[in-house]
Specification:
heterodimer; A: alpha/beta; four-stranded antiparallel sheet; B: mainly alpha; ABC transporter involved in vitamin B12 uptake, BtuC; two-stranded antiparallel sheet; globular
Chain lengths: 252, 389
């Protein structure tokens, strides 16, 4: 199996804080790879380095042989990397359906397309794609709602729909179930599991909820103080002494 | 119909009826009556209604959809005006080349200014556009005098080349702008009882252009392109993580709205072939912002309404003087009459800005969606109530 994402020797320093310290990570194609770790371990910082929000001080991030460093966020997305943010980043003034149609159009038309005279109402394919994804996520009854008026959990699901509609090669999920009820969380697990199996999308998932992590992940990396301390299969993670030390604060 | 949804088609139809019947609708009071003062159905003013309507509709494509507030759009109106007059001077007195070329020239101008200004957003973008417009104004009034006519302005003259018209224009008078021989200033007057209606060629040409401009604006609003522009306004950052580069979208919107401004400028000089530098001044840029906000930012019909309202105030309210006020309140006892006139005096005549300013404040505070936003929320409330019963 080939590597979808190869991270080599990534460092990032914010003033006096070494946020990422020589991070190495290999994510294999078609796998769901979870990154866990205590608060402040650098998980979101690492994800930000993958989508062009942050540039590492040193190191390399290769996606199917193409470097993701030094290119614009929209180019990274067009290369096939979609991200679900930790705090919902949506188009609040637009409807749920429009929120999902925009990434679908971006996927079809690229970074810019001057289609100013074709009515949206004739974009039936795009609309159907968006509706299908929203149905998968159990949001079919909410498509005409204004996005801002939804609950936090629904906004997370909407963001997931925005990522999934693009049929990405790599989906980055930053705490996708935070703020969701137990039932919605389980539903989301099922959806992600189903998508992972049926479409073979590679996923990197950052999560605090161990229930979600152990239900989904094929592989787990544990990040502590900016560095990967353990990478292993899920069944070997729970009993690992280093992991328990990182979580229970044995370092102090 | 015409690629529009039923609702949008009805909106277009509404505007069509409104502008077609404007010479009648704007003259509700009989000639010589006490209120004839408030009649707005004369060609000069009606032309301004629709031309500024075009300007505001175009401005709304940028400001209403993307949220980028340009404070320099008068520069494009001015550039279009100069280009239009030059066409009338050099090519032909026919207004078609003037209108087309002024739109194109403004588009090129907007491409340059937009390319630079859109490197920044928010207040810095607004300041950059303001700076560019003021530079254009200052240049037009001084060093560019050979092209712009400086402070006296640029106008047509008897000895202009008019190469396409040939010797046909040798009547001894400066020819008036015309559409294939039909002069813009030409009017037909119809007297119906006490009412006098004026149907003007220039007005109907401008109205036709407004309808086309309005139709294009609806198509843009409802297109994937328009949706991307709304997404820019809603969450610019998110859009780039969605695989879209926002810059070309905002630049395209900037150029389109600049072309609308140039089109308005071209029409203005087709009605009256005189272009002055003051057309580029920041007050003129501010006026179109007021029109759009007053009518309703991001609504289709709001800017047209706002443009009409402001031009009405500027031309009608400003004409009310103390004599007229005394006439109106003549039925009151003398003391009360003087009192009323004193109270109203600051709000009319030269004080019309005060009334407009107060109205603007009220709209911004109580109707954040502008007049159209207010009307539609009122409609929704009434409609929902009747539905509930």
């Amino acid at each position: 199996m080939s590597a979808a994402l190869e991270v080599r020797g990534v460092n990032k320093r914010f003033g006096g804080l070494q946020a990422l310290d020589d991070v190495n990570l290999t994510v294999e194609e078609g796998r769901i790879h979870a990154i866990i770790g205590p608060n402040g371990a650098g998980k979101s910082t690492l994800l930000n380095c993958f989508v062009g929000r942050l540039t590492p001080d040193s190191g390399s991030v290769m996606f199917h042989g193409q470097s993701l460093l030094g290119i614009q966020p929209h180019q990274i997305n067009q290369a096939g990397v979609s991200r679900v943010f930790q705090t919902p980043e949506i188009f609040s003034d637009l409807t749920v359906l429009e929120n999902v149609m925009i990434p679908a159009l971006a996927h079809r038309d690229g970074i810019f397309e001057f289609n100013a005279f074709k009515p949206m109402s004739r974009e039936t394919d795009i609309r159907q794609r968006a509706v299908d994804v929203l149905e998968d996520l159990g949001m079919a009854d909410k498509i005409d709602m204004v996005a801002a008026s939804m609950s936090r959990g629904d906004k997370r699901r909407l963001e997931m729909a925005m990522g999934l509609v693009q049929d990405p090669r790599l989906l980055l999920l930053d705490e996708p179930t935070a703020g969701m009820s137990r039932a919605d969380t389980n539903n989301t697990i099922d959806v992600l599991r189903h998508i992972g199996d049926s479409r073979g999308i590679t996923m990197i998932i950052i999560e605090h909820d161990m229930h979600v992590v152990f239900s989904l992940a094929d592989r787990i990396s544990v990040l502590a103080q900016g560095t990967v301390i353990v990478e292993d299969a899920p069944e070997n993670i729970k009993g690992n002494a280093k992991v328990q030390e990182a979580y229970l604060g044995g370092a102090h | 119909m015409l690629g529009l949804s039923r609702r949008d088609f009805l909106t277009l139809l509404f505007v069509l009826v409104l502008v077609a019947a404007a010479p009648i609708l704007m003259n509700p009071f009989p000639e010589g009556s006490k209120f004839a003062q408030f009649n707005a159905g004369y060609p000069d003013l009606m032309q301004r209604f629709v031309i500024f309507g075009i300007f505001a509709v175009g401005f709304n494509i940028l400001f209403g959809l993307t949220g980028y507030l340009s404070f320099g759009h008068a520069a494009f109106l001015g550039a279009g005006s100069y280009a239009g007059v030059w066409m009338l001077k050099l090519l032909t007195i026919n207004v078609i080349p003037a209108i087309v070329v002024s739109t194109l020239v403004a588009g090129v101008f907007a491409l340059i200014i937009g390319f630079i200004s859109l490197r920044r957003s928010g207040i810095y973008f607004s300041i950059l556009t303001l700076a560019f417009a003021q530079m254009s104004f200052a240049l037009a009034a001084s060093v560019l005098t050979p092209i712009t006519g400086g402070e006296t302005g640029l106008q047509t003259a008897l000895n202009d080349p008019r190469i396409l018209d040939g010797a046909a224009s040798g009547t001894g008078n400066i020819p008036a702008p015309a559409l294939f021989g039909l002069e813009m200033g030409h009017s037909w007057q119809v007297k119906m009882g006490d009412w006098l209606w004026t149907f003007n060629v220039g007005y109907y040409l401008s109205a036709l252009v407004l309808l086309v401009a309005f139709y294009i604006s609806i198509r843009i609003f409802r297109s994937p392109f328009g949706m991307m522009l709304k997404a820019v306004k809603s969450n610019n950052q998110r859009l780039s993580y969605t695989g879209i580069s926002p810059r070309p979208y905002t630049l395209a919107a900037f150029v389109i709205s600049g072309m609308y401004a140039g089109l308005a400028g071209g029409l203005m000089v087709s009605m009256d072939p005189l272009a002055g530098a003051e057309r580029m001044q920041w007050t003129a840029s501010g006026e179109v912002v007021l029109m759009t906000i007053l009518g309703g930012v991001g609504t289709l019909i709001g800017p047209v309404l706002g443009a009409g309202l402001i031009k009405y105030f500027e031309n009608i309210f400003s004409k009310i003087n103390d004599n007229l006020l005394h006439q109106w309140f003549a039925f009151m006892p003398d003391g009360l009459e003087d009192f009323m006139v004193t109270i109203i005096h600051p709000f009319v005549g030269k004080g019309w800005h005060l009334t407009l300013g107060l109205m603007f404040m009220l709209v911004v505070i109580f109707l954040p969606g502008g007049l159209i936003g207010g009307l539609s929320s009122l409609y929704n409330r009434v409609f929902r109530r009747s539905k509930a019963h």
